[in-house]
């Protein structure tokens, strides 16, 4: 993953790059660093920990105009100052940042060592810096003049030896106001500002400073300096630079009075779902070809993490309500299981970021099998959005917190809209209406569960393991509740389908167990109450989320949910579970936006 940043021009280059890195921090935050040339010295400052730590070490008001920066999510080598980027070439004149993975780095590293050039870190990145640096030295030794063109020639040649994905940016001390870059696989965007140019892993990070931006294509190499953005293809043919105007959503990056982005984004969830629902009907009809679901087809859903949990609800609804079989897989499994796909297959890929490498890999696989591909993503122009045949958008707004909350609700909204569309095409009647959804979303708009959850927070905070149970559609919400709590609160959580308890998992339950149960399905009340009895009998403390409080179930804790149609209940049951995660994280003193070991966009397999 990792985020890379660059700025050339203006007097406050360090400040600009630190601001860009702040917006890229969702991509990784185990260490960070910057590099710039000052008084003909190449200065590199690195720090372990999140950006706050680097901020303490740099002077943002230093008068330097050209700076590169990096925020890291470790792939090769543990988080450490040594492994943090930028990495240097052997001459100490070139500093380079990288996002991606160089798969053949071991081979390249041993090649370098045979030439007497040793790497000092465990990273794959250092190899890139050392290779380019050594090739420039070789050029110098032939008497060649080293200018931007020569550096690009060297860069293009050296990239030919690398296998894998990369977005790189580097400074070369003799050309102090140039930032050279290359992209293959990992995202990279360049932007033009007033008297300055920028680059970053994502356009949101620079758009505030820019009048126009351009997402680079795989194979692009080039440089930015004070005034210019120059882009070439692999063969060094110059490309025309067409910058596009950008929508500004500056508010998304402000906490606006909330204690964390997680807190803010949970609050924004219902609004995003309503907006998605409002737009989806028209957009689905205008995006998908009329006949797409009219001929014979087999349907597949692929995603990761929270997006997969939304996908599980899609499968449940499509099968139960429309009697159309759906296969669902983790993207990381789908790609390698030799899935049965043909030109009759329709594959749906759910991804908030639209950048998840596992999911993107599946899109490519599905296309190579002749399948029709549909993306559901929250980010226009993202790699998945561009790769699929048809893309449907959710309107959750920029999601910053690593835990996906508002995007999940927007994905649900889009899924329900798609189910309506499919029902229309197939002439089927559903057990719920769009009005049922908008009605319940409006009821949930100002609903907050703090007072109901408060008395259980200390208990949950103390748990090292926590179980979630549900049946039917509730099971999939239980899965998402468990993922949230494990991701943000570092509590081992597992979700069980109620009926499965006695087939093994019940053995885990004793009088110190805490179980969060969800019961929203009228037809499953008796069955679920039986499961709760089984848990009670083993001494578990069951906290039940249900609209059926009049049943007065014998439980340790009861959280009243809004009453709605059975198939619409995920909107109601997920809200208190998302809030539970936030409050427990607050009790534990964990930064809910940046859970350890994780990053928002998982752009490596
Ligand atoms: O951007 P994507 O929706 O493709 O991301 C998929 C998962 O990485 C993501 O949902 C992850 O599980 C979240 N951090 C969960 O909160």
Count of discrete alpha- or pi-helical segments spanning 4 or more residues:
16
CATH architecture of the largest domain: 4-Layer Sandwich
Which CATH first-tier class of the largest domain would you pick? Alpha Beta
Major sheet details: 7 strands, antiparallel
Bound molecules: 5-amino-5-deoxy-1-O-phosphono-D-mannitol
Q: In whole angstroms, how far apart are the ends?
A: 10 Å
Let me know the average pLDDT: 95
Please, what is the CATH homologous superfamily of the largest domain?
Answer: Aminohydrolase, N-terminal nucleophile (Ntn) domain
Helix content: 25-40%
Bin the strand percentage. 15-25%
Shape: globular
Major β-sheet strand ordering: 3-2-4-1-10-9-11
Number of domains: 3
Structure summarized in a few sentences:
The protein has 16 helices and 24 strands. The protein has helices at residues 13-24, 51-57, 105-114, 125-141, 148-159, 261-287, 305-322, 331-334, 357-368, 383-387, 406-426, 434-444, 450-462, 473-489, 525-537, 570-588; strands spanning 3-8, 31-38, 41-48, 66-72, 87-88, 94-102, 164-172, 179-184, 189-192, 197-200, 212-215, 221-224, 229-232, 238-239, 298-303, 326-330, 345-351, 372-377, 390-393, 465-470, 492-497, 514-518, 541-546, 557-560. It is α/β, with parallel strands linked by helices and 605 residues long.
């Amino acid at each position: 993953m990792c985020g890379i940043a660059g700025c050339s021009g203006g007097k406050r280059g360090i400040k600009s790059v630190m601001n860009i890195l702040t917006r890229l921090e969702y991509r990784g935050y185990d260490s960070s660093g910057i590099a710039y040339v000052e008084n003909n010295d190449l200065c590199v400052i690195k720090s372990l920990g999140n950006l706050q730590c680097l901020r303490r070490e740099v002077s943002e008001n230093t008068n330097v105009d050209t700076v590169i920066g990096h925020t890291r999510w470790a792939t090769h080598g543990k988080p450490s100052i040594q492994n943090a980027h930028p990495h240097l070439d052997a001459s100490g004149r070139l500093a380079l940042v990288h996002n991606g993975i160089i798969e053949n780095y071991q081979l390249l590293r041993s090649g370098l060592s045979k030439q007497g050039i040793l790497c000092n870190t465990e990273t794959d990145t250092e190899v890139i810096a050392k290779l380019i640096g050594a090739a420039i030295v070789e050029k110098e030794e032939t008497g060649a003049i080293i200018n931007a063109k020569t550096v690009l020639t060297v860069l293009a040649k050296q990239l030919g030896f690398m296998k894998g994905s990369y977005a790189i940016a580097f400074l070369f001390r003799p050309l102090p106001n140039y930032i050279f870059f290359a992209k293959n696989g990992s995202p990279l965007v360049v932007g033009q500002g007033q008297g300055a140019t920028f680059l970053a892993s994502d356009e949101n990070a620079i758009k505030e400073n820019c009048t126009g931006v351009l997402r680079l294509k795989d194979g692009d190499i080039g440089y930015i300096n004070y005034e210019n953005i120059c882009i070439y293809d692999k063969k060094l043919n110059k490309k025309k630079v067409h910058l596009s105007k950008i929508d500004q959503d500056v508010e998304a990056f402000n906490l606006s009075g909330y204690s964390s982005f997680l807190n803010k984004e949970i609050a924004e969830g219902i609004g995003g779902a309503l907006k998605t629902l409002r737009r989806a009907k028209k957009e689905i009809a205008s995006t998908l070809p009329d006949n797409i679901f009219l001929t014979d087809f087999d349907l597949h859903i692929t995603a990761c993490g929270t997006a997969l949990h939304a996908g599980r609800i899609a499968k449940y609804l499509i099968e139960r309500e429309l009697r159309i079989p759906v296969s669902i897989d983790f993207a990381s499994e789908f790609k390698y299981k030799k899935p049965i796909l043909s030109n009759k297959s329709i594959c749906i890929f759910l991804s908030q970021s639209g950048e998840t490498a596992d999911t993107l890999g599946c899109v490519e696989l599905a296309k190579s099998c002749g399948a029709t591909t549909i993306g559901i993503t929250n980010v226009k122009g993202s790699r998945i959005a561009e790769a699929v045949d048809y893309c449907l958008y959710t309107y959750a707004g920029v999601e910053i917190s690593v835990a996906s909350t508002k995007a999940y609700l927007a994905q649900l909204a889009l899924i329900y809209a798609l189910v309506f569309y499919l029902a229309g095409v197939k002439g089927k009647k559903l057990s719920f209406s769009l009005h049922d959804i908008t009605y319940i979303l409006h009821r949930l708009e100002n609903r907050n569960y703090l007072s109901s959850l408060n008395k259980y927070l200390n208990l949950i905070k103390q748990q090292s393991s926590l179980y979630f149970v549900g049946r039917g559609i509730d099971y999939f919400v239980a899965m998402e509740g468990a993922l949230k709590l494990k991701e943000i609160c570092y509590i081992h959580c597992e979700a069980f389908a109620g009926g499965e308890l006695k087939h093994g998992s019940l053995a885990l339950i004793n009088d110190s167990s805490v179980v969060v149960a969800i019961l929203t399905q009228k037809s499953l009340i008796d069955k679920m109450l039986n499961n709760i009895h089984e848990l009670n009998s083993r001494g578990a403390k069951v906290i039940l989320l249900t609209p059926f409080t009049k049943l007065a179930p014998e439980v340790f804790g009861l959280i009243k949910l809004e009453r709605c149609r059975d198939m619409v209940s995920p909107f109601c049951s997920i809200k208190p579970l998302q809030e539970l995660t936030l409050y427990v994280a607050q009790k534990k003193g964990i930064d809910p936006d940046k859970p350890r070991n994780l990053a928002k966009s998982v752009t490596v397999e």
